[in-house]
Design goal:
By secondary structure, the protein is mainly beta. The chain folds into two domains: 2-177, Lipoxygenase-1; 246-435, sav2460 like domains (Lipoxygenase-1). The chain has helices at 163-170, 226-229, 427-435, and strands spanning 2-3, 8-11, 15-23, 30-39, 49-50, 62-70, 78-86, 94-104, 115-120, 123-129, 138-147, 150-160, 246-247, 254-256, 266-275, 291-300, 305-308, 316-317, 324-326, 339-344, 351-362, 370-378, 384-387, 397-406, 409-419. A seven-stranded mixed beta sheet has the order 13-23-22-15-20-19-18, with no helix packed on it. The relative contact order is 0.13.
Length: 446
């Protein structure tokens, strides 16, 4: 069954082969496949990442089975990496097995023919043709996850411009726990363990003494239309309306993520910008660009408040409060990835409000001449974006978007509001005052 991005389907609880295929050749970056086993709180330690240099998970449930296998047809110019995933042996604490590709020497936007296949006994169960990759160097192709006592597969197709470091940070792994680069030589495939014969076979007990055991239920995968596989919406909520993209403006500044289908998974908030030297106010730092910092004030349903920002290394957490993670710190804005915050929409019930804002850390005195775009990309919904208006005041802090929970819905409001700090007042404290957060601020640096 061929899936589109965000779609899912049931999996048989069995030993599956997961194949990652892509084009290879001169000028195409190298790539291989990894698997990350995730619990409710994220990855538990470095052993939960299975890759070519660490090819077997301690549980034996996931194995890097083969790498760089050429296509039987030389004209195809494709290679395939294979993972073996034994869903019958995955530890109870593990809720999801992410299938992740990593690149070396370039981004996935330069690697054509990305494809993921899931097979059982040679028969194809699911297929996902990954399209739309751009500046990612680590790419989540799909995931096998527990649902209702069984397993399902979801086509994901989202990645990280910061590579495995960004992926690791999102799931609780430090940079020093991750492999630095693809191996120059791919290890030999890891064979399945040979069965050890019992030296003293035990005679089979008499049939009448054998306790009857009910057989395990069989999960059958049916090739049904994608629409039929979508989980039903709650009876109290309208069915999500999926649009191609929503652009917020002054006249239409609000959108409901629920109505856009973005109710679960990760919400990625991206800020990208470019400098107009003719309009840029003030000095530029030695890197030749402007260093903007993406930040977020949060208030949770239990009343706790705080800030996620690079200053003071307050990068947040995706699987623990505040369920918001700052992926990194782009010092120039010139990269395609810009700055990114990730919000875990699986914990929407914990949110009361989130204010995403940006400050100028270095390189300019105001936002004049900085052309910035804000994009909110839900994992399973339509993207929402808007551009910042021209800055006409001496502002070094701008409130971007306010996310407010209204019942079971998360509403996004375009703010695009330039703030002017009083003398001696920091941009962060100025934002706090403007929106009534009431935090105690202390000096910090990055």
């Amino acid at each position: 069954m061929t899936l589109r991005k965000g779609e899912n389907m049931p999996l048989p609880t069995a030993v599956l082969q997961v194949e990652f295929t892509r084009r290879a050749g001169t000028g195409i970056p190298r790539a291989d496949v990894c698997a990350l086993l995730v619990a409710d709180t994220g990855a538990r330690d470095a052993d939960d990442l299975v890759h070519a240099a660490a090819p077997v998970h301690p549980s034996g449930a996931v194995r890097y089975a083969a790498g760089g296998t050429p296509d039987p047809d030389p004209a195809a110019g494709t290679v395939t990496d294979t993972l073996s995933v034994d869903l019958t042996s995955v530890e109870t604490a593990v809720t999801s097995v992410l299938v992740v590709a990593r690149s070396d020497g370039g981004t996935f936007g330069r690697i054509p023919g990305l494809r993921l296949r899931v097979t059982e006994g040679g028969a194809e169960v699911a297929r996902f043709d990954c399209e739309g990759a751009t500046a990612e160097t680590a790419y989540v192709l799909g995931e096998c996850y527990r649902r209702g006592g069984g397993w399902k597969f979801r086509a994901v197709g989202q990645g990280y411009g910061s590579g495995l470091a960004g992926l690791g940070a999102a799931y609780g792994l430090r940079a020093d726990q991750l492999p630095e680069r693809l191996p120059d030589v791919v290890p030999e495939p890891v064979p399945d363990p040979e069965p050890v014969p019992d030296p003293d076979p035990v005679p089979e007990p008499p049939r009448e003494a054998t306790r009857a055991v009910a057989p395990e239920p069989t999960v059958v995968v049916h090739a049904v239309p994608p629409a039929a596989m979508a989980p039903p919406a709650p009876a109290s909520a309208p069915a999500p309306v999926r649009l191609s993209k929503v652009t917020l403006t002054k006249d239409a500044p609000v959108v409901s993520l629920t109505k856009q289908g973005g109710t679960t998974g990760a919400l990625r908030v991206n800020l990208s910008w470019r400098v107009d030297p003719a309009r840029g106010g003030g000095r530029f730092h030695k890197g030749g660009g402007v260093d903007l910092d993406l930040c977020a004030l949060f208030e949770l349903s239990d009343g706790s408040k705080g800030v996620v920002q690079a200053l003071g290394n307050a990068f947040g957490s995706l699987y623990q409060p505040p369920f918001i993670l700052l992926d990194g710190d782009d010092r120039t804005g010139g990269s395609a990835s810009g700055e990114n915050l990730t919000v875990n929409l699986d914990h929407t019930a914990h949110f009361r409000r989130i204010l995403v804002f940006v400050t100028i850390y270095e390189g300019a005195r105001s936002f004049a001449g900085l052309h910035a775009t804000v994009t909110l990309q839900p994992q399973y919904g339509a993207p929402v974006d808007f551009v910042l208006d021209e800055c006409t005041v001496q502002s070094n802090v701008c409130a971007l978007a306010l996310l407010v929970r209204e019942g079971d819905d998360l509403v996004v409001r375009r703010e695009a509001r330039y703030l002017v700090p009083r003398r001696g007042v920091s941009p962060q404290r100025t934002t706090d005052y403007a929106y009534g957060w009431g935090l105690n601020w202390t000096p910090g640096r990055k």
